[in-house]
Please model this.
Amino acid sequence: MIEYHLKQSGFNVIKALDGPLGLEQARKVQPGLIILDLMLPRMDGKDVCRAIKSNPLTQSIPILMLTAKAEEMDRVIGFELGADDYVTKPFSPRELVLRVKAILRRKQTPQEEQKIIQIGDLLIDAERHQVSLQNSTVHLTSTEFKLLFELASRRGRIQTRENLLNKVWGYTYEGYARTVDTHIRRLREKLGPFGEWIETVRNVGYRFRDEEE
Model:
């Protein structure tokens, strides 16, 4: 069903019926995007995701996870492993296709205006898609990078969860606003002490502290 609707929308689709085969296809083909079911035979989807994100050849491939569970912990685990988005079963094929298009669009759309942001010891290079802190590379997923760039390029200004969801993920839906919170938490952890510069504005959203404050 997924293959059919994606092909109807103009995508080339490669199928893998179990975890090891999916991992092999990811390494061999290096597709533009991976739709990964968590419930797979022979190898758990979380292990597949972990392997993809730990391999330099495949770690930049965005991953859309499919999960039968709607509990927050399942989403958190997926995001911690490096997934860019998730869809909970049952889902409509139209929603899935829209999510795929949104992920690919934000991956391909060049960053606007600023190409390099320097804030103290933090350097964000949009063209190279790299982040360094005190001259050490910070390894971020594509979504985490986009989120950091969005906040840092508008530092000092409050960004609502809904606005970040639209800018970074490419869609706006109140029910998915917690997705932003999960990614912010992970981003803060990876930035270490510098993570404190991402401030929570209660009941509104987030703000990247201005350097002059």
